[in-house]
Amino acid sequence: MEPPGPTEKGQKIKNLEQELNDLRQGLVVVTDYYQDLKDASQEQIASLELDEGIVKPLMEDDLEFESIWRFHEEVLLADPSARVPCNAMFEAFEQFCTKSGRDVVEQEAFEFVFARMENPHPVCDRGDLVGYRLRPAQQ
Q1: What is the full DSSP assignment across 40-69?
Q2: 14: which residues sit within 8 A by CB, 6+ positions away?
Q3: Residue 18 exposure: Cα atoms within 13 Å on the Cβ side
Q4: Mean pLDDT, all residues of the chain
Q5: Which of 14, 107, 109, 129 is the one with CA 20 to 30 A from 61?
Q6: Which residues, at least 6 apart from 114, have a Cβ–Cβ distance to it below 8 Å?
Q7: What is the rounded CA–CA span in Å between residue 87 and residue 65?
Q8: What integer pLDDT is reported at residue 54 of this predicted model?
Q9: Contact at 8 Å (CB) between 131 and 121?
Q10: 68-86: pLDDT as tens digits
């Protein structure tokens, strides 16, 4: 076997340089890919932190309000002369939530939000809520 000539050596060197260049380009692609994964992971973590810290509490507040609002709309009738004990009103709210598959909020939260309802605005007087009565069960 003859030793490789200068053109063959030059061609081999050129081929090796091309392969080295291809490997460098592949390394850049892989590095970019992992950087993209890292960035996406950091964005996902930030999104989860935002969801847990801000969005989820707001949604829970909205769900609490929605339950109380639905109770207000579906179970109560405006009656300026009606008086319902606060405990009886909350028990009716609990029953409404149970029947409709909604989460029951604590009584303090219920009373806080309910006291801010309008049309008409309920008034708390000596342990009774004045301004609403419960709909009869058959309605």
Answers
A1: HHHHHHHHHHHIIIIIHHHHHHHHHHHHHH
A2: none
A3: 6
A4: 80
A5: 129
A6: 68, 72, 89, 122, 129
A7: 19
A8: 65
A9: yes
A10: 888 888 888 888 888 889 8
